[in-house]
Specification:
Strand order of the largest sheet: 4-3-2-1-5-6
Shape: globular
Order of helices and strands: HHHEEEEHEEHH
Strand content: 15-25%
Number of helices: 6
Helix content: 25-40%
Number of domains: 1
Radius of gyration: 18 Å
Number of strands: 6
């Protein structure tokens, strides 16, 4: 467990997201000097560990005719995995919620998905030019979720990791997956939450004293 917490702490420090605590500063310095492709592979390996712990099978190598999109989210709250799998005749989406450490399943459900919904997601992936997006960017944010999204369509696989930030290509894809899994907010709910956050931010601003 200590090893898992250490490794995940390295990942989230890169993005300035508080999730797992870092225990060896020397390893942090070593990671910072690695090329971005090495950092990305490091991240992929650790997400694979979470998927193994939560019993979510890999989507990188799929049999012909089988396609999948998977989102793995980690933050200061319990992590979750959403995996949409479809063939010519069947379409299902799984939602798995893990504990804070990402080591055991807390909640799981599976739903059927319409062909129209899958086509909408495919159109969104194409619109956002997912396959041509950089796999990894060293973006710093104060807090929030980190999303690792994998797409495997007709044997073409790609994974991308980013902080979950509004008005980004990954946010739109992830929000679509959340809604397909019955977990995402509606546009109205998101707008209400946004306004509530703005009001909260205004309320905590300290008055500036004139000198």
């Amino acid at each position: 467990m200590k090893s898992r917490n250490l490794i995940m702490g390295l990942i989230l420090i890169i993005f300035s997201i508080s999730f797992f605590s870092l225990k060896k500063s020397g390893e942090k310095d070593e990671l910072k000097h690695q090329p971005s492709e090495d950092v990305f592979q490091f991240i992929c390996d650790q997400y694979s560990e979470i998927c193994d712990a939560l019993n979510s099978e890999p989507i990188k190598n799929l049999p012909k005719g089988k396609n999948a999109v998977r989102l793995i989210s980690i933050s200061s709250s319990p992590c979750y995995i959403i995996k949409l799998v479809w063939t010519k005749h069947k379409r299902t989406i799984d939602f798995i919620e893990g504990d804070v450490d990402g080591t055991k399943v807390v909640r799981k459900k599976s739903l059927g998905v319409s062909k129209e919904s899958v086509n909408e997601l495919l159109a969104l992936i194409e619109e956002k030019d997912f396959y041509n997006q950089p796999e990894y960017l060293n973006i710093s944010v104060r807090d929030g979720e980190e999303w690792f999204v994998e797409v495997n369509i007709d044997g073409k696989y790609k994974a991308v990791v980013r902080p979950c930030l509004e008005h980004t290509f990954l946010y739109d894809i992830g929000r679509k997956l959340l809604r397909l899994a019955g977990e995402g907010m509606t546009d109205e709910e998101e707008e209400a939450a946004r306004k509530e956050l703005e009001e909260y931010r205004k309320s905590i601003k300290l008055p500036i004293k004139k000198r």
